[in-house]
TrEMBL record, chain A:
Keyword Protein transport among UniProt keywords: no
Domain of life: Bacteria
Keywords assigned by UniProt, alphabetized: Heme, Iron, Membrane, Metal-binding, Transmembrane, Transmembrane helix
Domain Cytochrome c: 90-181
Transmembrane feature ranges: 16-33
Gene Ontology molecular function: any one: metal ion binding
Signal is among the record's keywords: no
Native species: Methylocaldum marinum
Name of the featured protein: Cytochrome c class I
Automatic annotation (TrEMBL), chain B:
PANTHER family reported for this sequence: CYTOCHROME C OXIDASE SUBUNIT 1 (PTHR10422), NITRIC OXIDE REDUCTASE SUBUNIT B (PTHR10422:SF43)
GO molecular function terms listed in the Swiss-Prot or TrEMBL record: cytochrome-c oxidase activity; heme binding
Domain of life (superkingdom): Bacteria
Transmembrane segment boundaries: 21-41, 61-82, 98-119, 139-158, 170-191, 203-227, 239-262, 268-295, 307-328, 348-368, 388-411, 441-463
Record protein name field: Nitric-oxide reductase
PROSITE patterns hit by this protein: COX1_CUB
UniProt cross-references to InterPro entries, sorted A to Z: Cyt_c_oxase-like_su1_sf (IPR036927), Cyt_C_Oxase_1 (IPR000883), Cyt_c_Oxase_su1_BS (IPR023615)
GO annotation, cellular component aspect: membrane
Keyword line: Electron transport, Heme, Iron, Membrane, Metal-binding, Respiratory chain, Transmembrane, Transmembrane helix, Transport
Organism: Methylocaldum marinum
Signal peptide as annotated in the record: none
Family the UniProt entry places it in: Belongs to the heme-copper respiratory oxidase family.
Claim: Transport is one of the keywords in the record: yes
Length: 201, 492
């Protein structure tokens, strides 16, 4: 067994396995610390503070990167009421908890993850489906509380079931989706045309 | 030991426990296929069971049953070889027994809650008691805590037994891998409103389990199987195992980055995720080389033909499903279009089946062989072994058919929804209503039914193979361990 060349020896590969694993894991930890610092809500440019739900949100093509980047400018308070940071966080938290409680992810996707039975909700707030921004909040509220009655199936026959979403939970979900729409997702989903792009071609 | 008769006296303590795990695994396998079929029907007939058993519930049960049956299979496989590998009786077998019943009761309760309560109000009570609403780790928090407790008992049984008996390369890798397996599950057990942070840690569980610790775990199971089935030399098998660990963790840990392209994380994950995930197929090639070479060297003389067949299906399934199908859409340049489409479902179907279902089925055959008194399972089986051959053919054909159908759907979706329509909801539905998509979903259902038929045949075969067989198993001596026979035969 001593005559085995290095590349065929058990001991050599054992050491290699240990070192490769350890170095990879240490690198992952270091990158995780850096990523966490860059994605805290409001603590960096990529994930805005929850109070961003008081603002108007759009995407504009960055010609250098050749992808759409978020543009947050001008006031557009949700349901006509400007919320402070704590109130905004509470509302978005209610929305996120409702999103989980109603098991939304097993039909929809968010950030591209989830099931594929219903559309991706990452930029749902900005979807041209809402036609224009004046009725958007009312339409969303009505839809979430009676999705089967307000079904938008585009000829597929697929309908969202009534999940017993209360008005308060629906407001939370809308806040959660508006906030999610502001996250800089590196241009995903590709070539997304926002509601405003439809309004101002 | 009586040959050809199902008798628990043919099993050691760990093996008796393993058999229990395998039986629940099979029940959950059936549940996985059943709920998968219901979900597949709903793609074609959306009104089917609307507001009774909606797609979301079927799909959740489909993916959760899959994860849990695979874990049951892995735990069972480790209990199966624990005593033979360590040379001593299992430490704390009683705790293992209790843990099995606790886990099984918990799984039963969670399934009933999923079926009958389904959802709750948007508050913390729902996440603790009903459903956490996070893909793959939907289990409510109380069940999460239970799973960790059960996994700790399992870890204690494995590590304690090896410590009391002998350590080997296989058991060393296995024990450290179980530490990682338990530890990583904890990273998915907290609530955060920040959806980017949520998905960041969610991937630690999902990716680092499936693409790192699970792969190493099946590497250990595979290494042991090759010694058992073919009498492959321990030194060679273990050297390969270390190579695989180096390649698997070397590519898989930072390969995690390929999930960090679009969730709000910094751009440096593009090169890191792209580079390391491109390396991820390499260790899977090594596995193909390893198993086919070993089988060839031993002239395909094995103690258990069905198990060897499934081990080889595992190497190909793992390489194509996890390796090739994963790599096809893992680079950001492609993933920008394919992420969140049926491409993922295509990859998911072939990889979970190829990498994990196959090796578990191989172990079910090893178990049933021993349970029947280490019965003959080589060539010339009764009925020419048509049931295991046909079930293997149908299961593989069914899964490959679903994979190809979903890939076609994924291509169509990427082109129409993303490239042409600009990723809006109307773009999404334009893709979903296109005949090329609906036809693909029709073929997915057909091949899903083929898979189900294969599963029925598999259950029939596992229940009957070796019955009334009078020949004892083929004896294969391990060349470097002449005292230990690959198949211990004590028959008269």
């Amino acid at each position: 067994m001593n005559t085995a060349p290095l590349w065929a020896s058990e001991a050599f590969w054992k050491k290699t396995a240990v070192w490769v694993t350890a170095v990879s894991f240490v690198l992952l930890i270091a990158l995780t610390f850096d990523s966490m610092a860059r994605v805290s809500a409001g603590g960096s440019e990529r994930v805005p503070a929850y109070s961003v739900i008081n603002k108007k949100i759009d995407y504009r093509l960055d010609s250098k990167l050749n992808r759409f980047v978020p543009v947050i400018e001008g006031d557009a308070p949700l349901f006509g009421k400007t919320l402070n940071e704590d109130e905004a966080e509470r509302l978005v938290t209610l929305g996120k908890k409702t999103f989980q409680a109603k098991n939304c992810i097993n039909c929809h996707t968010i950030l591209g993850n989830g099931a594929y039975y219903a559309p991706d909700l990452t930029k749902a707030w900005l979807d041209p489906n809402w036609v224009d921004e004046t009725n958007r909040e009312t339409l969303m509220l009505a839809f979430l509380q009676d999705p089967a009655g307000n079904a938008r199936s585009y000829g597929t026959g697929r309908r969202m079931p009534n999940l017993g979403i209360t008005e308060e939970e629906a407001r939370g979900l809308i806040a959660f989706l508006k906030w999610t729409a502001t996250i800089d997702t590196n241009g995903f989903p590709h070539n997304f045309k926002t509601l405003y792009a439809q309004e101002n071609p | 030991m009586s040959v050809g008769v199902l008798d628990s006296r043919n099993l050691n303590g760990g093996q008796k426990l393993a058999v229990k795990y395998f039986i629940v695994a099979m029940v959950l396998f059936v549940a996985q296929i059943l709920f998968g079929l219901l979900a597949a029907v709903q793609f074609l007939a959306p009104g089917f069971l609307f507001e009774t058993l909606d797609f979301s519930v079927n799909r959740m049960l489909h993916i959760n049953a899959m994860i849990v049956w695979m874990l049951y299979g892995f735990i069972g496989a480790v209990y199966w070889f624990l005593e033979e590998e360590s040379g001593v009786e299992i430490v704390g077998l009683k705790c293992g027994e209790i843990a099995f019943w606790v886990l099984t009761a918990a799984v039963g309760i969670v399934v009933l809650v999923y079926l009958f309560l389904q959802t709750g109000a948007g508050n913390d009570a729902t996440r603790w008691l009903i459903n956490e609403g996070r893909e793959y780790i939907e289990a409510p928090r109380w069940a999460d805590i239970g799973i960790v407790a059960v996994m700790l008992v399992f870890f204690y049984n494995a590590a304690g037994t090896f410590s009391k008996g002998r350590w080997s390369g296989v058991s060393g890798v296995l024990t450290l891998d179980l530490v990682a397996l338990v530890g990583l599950y904890l990273t998915g057990m907290f609530y955060t409103t920040n959806v980017t942070v949520d998905h960041y840690w969610w991937w630690w569980v999902v990716h680092l389990w499936v693409e790192a610790t699970w792969e190493v775990l099946v590497g250990c199971i595979m290494a042991w199987s090759l010694m058992k089935l073919l009498g492959a030399r321990r030194r060679i098998v273990q050297t390969w195992l270390y190579i695989e660990v180096a390649l698997m963790f070397g590519s898989g840990i930072l390969g995690l980055g390929h999930h960090y392209f679009w969730i709000g994380t910094p751009e440096y994950w593009f090169p890191i995720g792209g580079f390391f995930s491109a390396l991820e197929p390499i260790p899977l090639v090594a596995m193909v080389v390893h198993s086919i070479y070993d089988a060839g060297v031993h002239k395909f003389r094995s103690t258990n033909h069905p198990a060897l067949g499934w081990v080889i299906a595992h190497t190909f399934g793992n390489f194509f499903g996890a390796g090739v199908w994963g790599f096809m859409h893992t680079l950001p340049q492609i993933n920008l279009y394919t992420h969140g489409t049926q491409w993922t479902a295509s990859h998911g179907h072939l990889s979970f089946f190829g990498a994990y279902a196959t090796i578990n089925i191989a172990f079910f055959y090893l178990a049933v062989q021993q349970w029947r008194g280490n019965v003959w399972m080589g060539a010339n089986l009764a009925d020419n072994g048509w049931k295991w051959k046909w079930s293997m053919a149908l299961l593989n054909l069914g899964v490959i058919g679903m994979t190809v159908a979903l890939l076609i759907a994924g291509y169509e979706q990427s082109f129409i929804e993303r490239a042409i329509e600009g990723s809006t909801w109307s773009g999404y539905f334009a893709a979903q209503t296109h005949p090329w998509f609906t036809q693909a979903m029709f073929w997915r259902l057909i091949f899903g039914i083929v898979t189900a038929v294969g599963l029925v045949l598999l259950i029939w075969d596992l229940a009957t193979i070796g019955a009334r067989e009078t020949r004892p198993a083929l004896v294969i001596e391990r060349p470097e361990e002449p005292g230990i026979k690959a198949a211990v035969v004590e028959t008269a």
